[in-house]
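tool_call: predict_structure(chain=1)
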Amino acid sequence: MSWFDSHCHLHSFLRKGEEKEVLMRAYAAEVTQMVTVGTSPLDWSDYRELSKVHARKIHYTVGLHPGYVAGDWKEQTSTIRSFFEQEFSPVAFGEIGLDYFRLPKDDEMAEQVISWQKEAFRRQLAWVGKLGCPVIIHSRCAFKDCVEEIDESGVDWEKVVFHCFTEGVDEIRQLMERGGRASFTGILTFAKNEKLWEAAKLQGVDKLMLETDSPYLSPVPYRGKRNEPCYLPEIGKFASRLLGMPIQRFAEILLENTSHFYGLGKTI
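tool_result:
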């Protein structure tokens, strides 16, 4: 059995010199591929180098996360397109989007931050359109605005994934109607989460992807601990029961879905 972690962040493990142990645990848990997702210039180059060392197992993306967007966002993104011109190029653009969860308390400053986020999002979506690559969307307390921005950008919705989806049936239906998809984290395993469970069941398995979003959002029974890619099978076991599928076939479909979305062959 092979699992594919569609979205994780390995930079904190790299900084602490723990990446070898973390990857060994992942491979031992049959997580044979993963995408480590860029958030700022601080991790893009490190991820490119990691993908070279672990070719066909670790893939990477580049993007300016809305949480890192500030007045210098143009400077921060000035080198981003060059990564797509290199031999070990990203498999997607992202994560990019809008995040209204931790805005400044001052109304005027909050409006300024939202303005910067939207400008950076639009610029990066324009690059996505020109590159024709997949794009990972970060949307927190900003679903409606994210959808509107993507609609206006003209980006192919078939190449869009809303990662760490926590919305409900109405929102996932909007993605499905446009041709987009959602991926789910360990939040899916949390108790009393009927809204999210119904959303996952509505999307079904045809476009489903799972992610750890590690080192965040550990699934049950590891909730509260640091998350790692090795915990992805716990999310997979829960999701397969939720959708009523045998675990082996479920893992195969996830591998196919994720590989297809990122434009990868069955390399493992």
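agent: Strands lie at 3-8, 31-36, 58-62, 92-99, 135-140, 160-162, 181-184, 209-210. Proceeding to next step.
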